[in-house]
Design brief:
Blueprint: E1 2-6, H1 12-21, E2 25-29, H2 33-40, H3 52-59, E3 65-68, H4 71-74, E4 80-83, E5 88-89, E6 96-97, H5 99-110, E7 117-120, H6 128-141, E8 150-153, H7 163-169, E9 172-176, H8 179-192, E10 207-209, H9 213-244, H10 248-255, H11 278-283, H12 290-314, E11 321-325, H13 341-350, E12 354-358, H14 364-369, E13 383-386, E14 406-409, E15 424-426, E16 431-432
Parallel strand pairs: 1-2, 1-4, 2-3, 4-7, 7-8, 9-10, 11-12, 11-13, 13-14, 14-15
Antiparallel strand pairs: 5-6, 8-9, 15-16
């Protein structure tokens, strides 16, 4: 098949490589000329994705995959077009911002030719595929969905860093606007993906027909919103546990020892492109979802709550030097999307602290470009707050931070014996130890 993949980001590029690796001709489209150039040289444009570099290095010289900034070079004559353009949420209104996706859809439609399958993999509010993309594609292209081309929604369900493994592990959900569109999409994904055997699933692993595009949209929103709500519940438990001197981690382990409890872990922040964003996409169409709204608000409040706890221990943060450990939104991933570092730094700064930031994945120049003042290893500080659970932070000791008066562990990743003699506050562990 000839396949076009629109947007070569941390999901789109591995997807394009996966399709090419299965023997198909793939042309990737991206607005970033530097990304296009990197791909065409067989060099991964971003680090950290397992197997991506070695696959690119083999597939590009073989002519299986190339990249372009020109839709006219990729879309006409394609058997399938897969779109993974980011969808943002307005910080003020919390409503979806379709700007980039609208522009990409128009460009796609301008070059769409009959017989093409169009699959959106970007997470969407329920009803978007049918109510927004179909009329826009038809209007611009002059073609009719269901007759001239077929449109489906098939959400990506992978995590950056392990995309190829996740593509094999999880069922591929497909929801079409017609039975024929769903059949075409099922046939397409069966040709470009392979699946691990899993005895734990209610039906064989593979491509799963969700019946409608709306059901497929809902499935992706539900699985990610569940995690945000679950983390919100864990954070609520942790807040209470700290007031009564209970170790919530021991409680959670006890609860999860039987099969009906699946409580997540509390933490200083919920970051990344997915968990803090998709509940708001869900809320954009279900305005009565108070549980979802409350959990999202609680999780968003955690950085401020943690800084307030630190201030409660030290009395006053004004004039103190604080280091936030971790710019990334989670350990081992070089990505700052919705990272807790931003509100944590803001809360410390508001209290008058001098704030420094450290992250083993980022250079000083990169931290500076993000708007932070880098921390020099071994420099004296009054307060350290663990924001990302990088493995390196589990080995830190009090000796690494001369003059430190308090370590606040927002991820339960530090080792207690390394901090003997220094007050240590772990979210949900029952108070200062």
């Amino acid at each position: 098949m000839r396949i076009a993949v629109i947007a070569l980001g941390k999901i789109g590029l591995p997807l394009a490589v996966q399709f090419a690796d299965q023997g198909h001709e793939v042309i990737g489209v991206d607005v970033n000329a530097a990304v296009v150039d990197s791909v065409n040289r067989g060099i991964e444009p971003f680090p950290g994705e397992a197997q991506l570099q070695e696959k690119l290095a083999a597939l590009v010289p073989a002519g299986r995959i190339r990249a372009t900034t020109d839709y006219a070079d990729a879309v006409p004559g394609a058997d399938a077009v897969v779109l993974v353009v980011p969808l943002f949420v307005n910080d003020v209104t919390a409503e979806p911002d379709f700007g980039w996706m609208d522009a990409a859809t128009r460009s796609l439609a301008e070059h769409l030719t009959p017989g093409t399958l169009v699959s959106y993999e970007t997470t969407l509010p329920v009803g978007t595929t049918r109510g927004r993309w179909r009329p826009l594609l038809e209007e611009v292209s002059g073609l009719t969905e269901g007759t001239d081309f077929h449109l489906v929604f098939s959400p990506e369900r992978v995590l950056t860093g392990r995309v190829f493994a996740d593509l094999r592990k999880y069922p591929k959900l497909v929801g079409g606007l017609s039975a024929e569109g769903t059949r075409r999409a099922t046939e397409f994904y069966e040709q470009v993906l392979t699946f691990d055997e899993r005895s734990d699933l209610p039906r064989p692993n593979g491509v799963w027909d969700m019946g409608t595009a709306e059901a497929a949209e809902m499935a992706k929103l539900a699985e990610t919103t569940y995690r945000d709500v679950n983390i919100g519940l864990a954070n609520q438990f942790a807040i209470y546990a700290d007031t009564v001197g209970i170790d919530i981690y021991a409680v959670i382990d006890a609860c999860n020892s039987q099969p009906f409890s699946h409580i997540h872990r509390p933490g200083i922040a919920v970051g990344g492109h997915c968990i803090p964003v998709y509940p708001r996409l869900y809320l954009s169409t279900d305005h009565d979802a108070e549980i979802v709204r409350t959990a999202r608000a609680l999780n968003a409040s955690m950085p401020e709550r943690v800084v307030a706890q630190a201030a409660g221990v030290l009395g006053d943060l004004n004039g103190l030097t604080a280091v936030v450990l971790g710019a990334a939104y989670r350990g081992g991933v070089k990505e700052t999307a919705f990272s807790g570092v931003f509100p944590t730094v803001a809360a410390l700064t508001e209290r008058g602290a001098k704030v420094l930031v450290h992250d083993p994945l980022y250079s000083d120049d990169e931290l500076t470009k993000l708007g932070f003042t880098p921390y020099d290893d071994g420099a004296p500080v009054d307060l350290a707050i663990v924001q990302a659970d990088h493995a390196e932070y589990g080995e830190l000791t009090a000796a690494d931070f001369p003059g430190i008066r308090l370590i606040v562990d927002g991820r339960n990743t530090t080792t207690a014996q390394n901090w003997v003699g220094v007050p240590r506050l772990v979210i949900g562990a029952g108070g200062v130890s």
